[in-house]
Amino acid sequence: MPKPKKKTANTKSLRLSDRLARLGLSSDMARVLHLPIRYEDETRLVLISEARQRHGDTIQIEGVVSECDVQYRPRRQLIVKLQDDSGLLTLRFLNFYGSQVTQMAVGKRLRVRGEMRHGFFGDEMVHPVVKVINVDTPLPQALTPVYPAGEGLSQTVLRKAIDDAMSKIDWRDTLPESLRSSLDLLAFEPAIQLLHNPPPDIDADALLERTHPAWIRVKFDELLAQQLSMKRAQAARRQQGAPALSVEGALSQALITSLPFSLTTAQQRVLQEIRADLQEHYPMQRLLQGDVGSGKTVVAALAAAQAIDSGYQAALMAPTEILAEQHFRKIEAWFTPLGIEVAWLTGSLRKREKDNAKQRIESGDARLIIGTHALIQQEVEFARLGLVIVDEQHRFGVAQRLTLRNKGIDSVPHQLMMSATPIPRTLAMTYFADLEVSVIDELPPGRTPIVTRLVAQERRDEVITRVHAAALSGRQAYWVCPLIEESEVLQLQTATETHALLSEALPDLKVGLVHGRLKPAEKQATMDAFAQGQLHLLVATTVIEVGVDVPNASLMVIEHAERFGLSQLHQLRGRVGRGDAASVCLLLFQGPLGPVAQQRLAIMRESSDGFEIARHDLAIRGPGEFLGARQSGQAMLRFADLEKDQWLVERARNMALTLLAQQPEVAEAHLARWLGAREDFLRV
Ligand code: ADP
Ligand code: MG
């Protein structure tokens, strides 16, 4: 059999500039702003006799090689004995090249750096970093920076490229002295120089923790650039034309009158905010936040009514079929009696139905269109799209939202995004700075609070008994199967098994099953049966996470709650507590729990406030969750930390406003420096 061809390291053969470009380091300024991720302290040496007390520490030792042997038992390895005035230390290399054997020949003087451990040969270092030196090679005077590196780029090469760039750039400070001193900020050049070449007497902790004034300056600059570019995007948006939806006519009135409830004060307030935006000649970009069950749908429907009243179409896009269909049913029931045609478009429709829907959208007969991603497919053309509503916005990528926005014919439609995952203030001020935010901070009256309990997996039988009792008293329950992130197949299998087990344990109950792989029609049939009370218990994967609304369901069991994110648990829990019965959420967990998991579940037990939960989630998981999987990573700030540097975010924001108003040329220069160095840190 022919040997598989060895993969050649073709990254090595790329030109240096290409390798740097891969890291986003095409310009000199980008290279200068490529700052160390950490620093190593190579300024100090430890005596071998003292090294024995330092197990687990990374230390540096200098000595002369007294032995250098390749051994074959118990396995092939290179053993080097290093000697200084105080003792002898073993260095062990399991993978090594012939050149290393020569490099570390007996008599050579080495400076090695590695972790001390207790191994097969007593005290040793395995695979230390080795430098061959002379007796008079001086120790570095400063901490050694370690840069984020890419494939085929060593620290030395990066370092050289950065040094080279530092000799070329324009070091002028973008912030005038007066502004800097008012904020107590270090000047740009000394700050950057220091971060690349920290002096020997520096406060190493402040440097590593990134609280040193030099880091503060860099973080401030980064946040300021971000704020400025957000504001710029906002200004650009205001330049785009949008249809002014100024008519609050018959339909809006009729819809309000026909509702079986009156709007809460919070709903009325956000509706006013949205209505004011819709009347403008530039596109609205507003995020409607409200905890699960706060009643966002009706607000969205009223916004749509305003668009329709003004002679435009409105489209509502939801992330899943279940959710889209639920919206469709509810909204259709509101609008059809008022003589408004509502169209339904998802990927799973038959071709004929799809063509029919598209035709109605194109002709303008359909005034309100509800659907999934299918709405943003190329072939769908709207006659007069005036308003785009995106439910659970964080589940869509930016590109998807933009595509729908581009479906307007000669102007950009207004955009209303909805989310039950509250975006913490700092995030809203940074990544979402170009969004206006409306918050529904009040639940409709008559909701009973949900009691949350933590239950160890061993007590699963008691939980089953409880489900049984709830069913006998006329209540319904959800049973959410464990999240298995690594494997969808495994997750389905678990759901099917759980369904079988529970059906067997509860023979007198009707137990249904929904998961993401069911055909939409089957899924819908099961959901309908549950909504109509024909099923006592619904076993489900996280497909029921958003939007499902069955008021008679008052018990929720979540298995392996420790595997879910906090916001996700909160969303799931929001499926109960929608009727007048006291609701209970049981979080089954598999012990023993680590301290973080314990803390997380305790938060779920103690808080029912989506905002508070989101704040904890941000602290524990970072902002990716809120930005949506597709956005996270690329849009991240590199230096500033939204939790720790909240105070800086506020200052940067204020400074951005001041600069734009008073010194726009300074704002331009600052943006040019930071955006020129990095284009991808903002996407609107
Ligand atoms: P969410 O904000 O989670 O999307 P929904 O819009 O689905 O919440 O509303 C949850 C439930 O509350 C729905 O059954 C809805 O009809 C009802 N609802 C909305 N607003 C009110 C209100 N002002 N008074 C009473 N019930 C309301
Ligand atoms: Mg909803």
Describe the structure.
The protein has 684 residues and is an alpha/beta fold. It is built from 26 helices and 21 strands. The strands form four sheets. The chain has a seven-stranded parallel beta sheet, with helices on both faces. Strands 16-21-20-17-19-18 form a six-stranded parallel beta sheet, with helices on both faces. Helix 8 packs across helix 10. The longest helix has 27 residues, at 213-239. The chain is globular, with a radius of gyration of 31 Å. The two termini are 54 Å apart. Bound molecules: adenosine-5'-diphosphate (ADP) and magnesium ion. Magnesium ion binds next to helix 13. Adenosine-5'-diphosphate (ADP) is lined by residues 261, 263-264, 267, 290, 292-298, 420, 444, 549.
The largest sheet has its strands arranged as: 11-12-10-13-14-9-15
**Quick one: biggest sheet?**
7 strands, parallel
**Helix content, binned percent:** 40-55%
Q: What class would the helix/strand composition place it in? A: alpha/beta
Please report the distance between the alpha carbons of the first and last residues.
Answer: 54 Å
Question: Which spans have pLDDT < 50 for at least 5 consecutive residues?
Answer: 1-9, 628-635, 679-684
**What ligands are attached or bound here?**
adenosine-5'-diphosphate, magnesium ion
- Give the overall silhouette: globular
Whole-number average pLDDT? Answer: 86
Percentage of residues in DSSP E strands: 15-25%
Over all CA atoms, what is the radius of gyration?
Answer: 31 Å
**Number of alpha- plus pi-helical segments:** 26
| Total beta strands | 21
